[in-house]
Amino acid sequence: MLRSSMQAAVTMGQLQQKLDLIGNNLANMETPGYKTRNSEFASLLYQQIDNIEDEGENPNRLTPDGLRMGSGAKLAHTDINLSQGSIKETGRALDVALQDEKHLFQVEVTVNGQAETRYTRDGSFAFSPVNDGEVMLVTSNGNPVLGEDGPIVMDDTFDEMTIRKDGSIFLTQNGEQNEVGRLAIVNAERPRLLEAAGQNVFRIPQEGIEDITVDEIVAAVAPENINTKQGALETSNVDMSKQMTDMLTMQRAYQFNSRSIAMGDQMMGLVNQLR
Predict the structure, then answer these.
(1) Which of 120, 152, 232, 240 could share a disulfide with 147, CB 3.0–4.6 Å?
(2) Is there a single domain that holds both residue 224 and residue 136?
């Protein structure tokens, strides 16, 4: 009875993590470029108890011999679903949608005074003043968007900005167009290795990839293979019906394990009352 209560308590903790994940997905339904996080359960360590001395006595048995005493369940892994979200026209010049589901923008994030490269699908960009007469292209969170030569900085005296299909950025001033940079787009070669880092960005894990190079996880995309669309944003790929169904399933499982603890407590109370 004590073992069953421990199993249920451990499983409830993992179910709560799954519910938190579902809640995060639902909360980001309207976040541009957000990608659904999915997770799967697996069994923890279990003890196999053989209670049949002669296996020949059950020649037609289909299930495994003996008893299996488990320790509960755990979240085995969390995956990022990079499937393409729908493209929504905005008409805003600084909105850019990626039309290949594995392509990612590169952004620069400063952590503890050190600049790190992160990756995102959110193309809702803005301008941030950096010097007199200059602006820098940044994300909605204020992080610099990276081009082929680093952060993209330009004069703020232009009349119009155009981002072409291949990610090249042109400024029009006095009827004349000049290229000022190109968006640095990468392809997620092994998206399951990317780690969510908050603020709708991904990063390369710091641990567990000693034998894997960065280029094996994300690789630069040649300009001719880039496919962007200016004046549009990719919506999130969260499937609300699936998330609600998963949430109800997890809640039922949570209730079941909670009831298991209550029943175990009642049974131990009855045992203690025996004379």
Answers:
(1) 152
(2) yes
Q: Measured between alpha carbons, how far is residue 49 from residues 4, 56, 65, 96, 99 in Å?
A: 16, 17, 9, 59, 54
> What pTM value is reported for the model?
0.80
Round to whole Å and give the CA distance between 182 and 146. Answer: 9
pLDDT of 237 > 70? The answer is yes
Nearest to 38 by CA among 272, 209, 270, 237: 237
How far is it, in rounded angstroms, from Cα 195 to Cα 197?
6
- Same domain for 46 and 100, yes or no, is no
Same domain, 135 and 194: yes
Contact 71, 46 (CB under 8 A): yes
Per-residue confidence band for 92, with pLDDT thresholds at 50, 70 and 90: very high
127 and 165 assigned to the same domain: yes
Bridge partner residues of 137 (DSSP): 127
Tell me, yes or no, whether 234 lies in a domain: no
The residue written with tokens 């070669």 in the block is 189
The structural domain count of the chain equals 2
Question: Tokens 């729908």 correspond to what residue?
Answer: 86
Q: Which tokens hold the place of 168? A: 């090249």
Closest CA to 186 of 163, 159, 153, 216: 216
Average pLDDT score, the chain = 88
Say whether both 112 and 182 belong to one domain. Answer: yes
Per the structure, the complete domain to which residue 254 belongs is given by 2-81+239-273
In angstroms, the CA 39 to CA 76 distance is 7
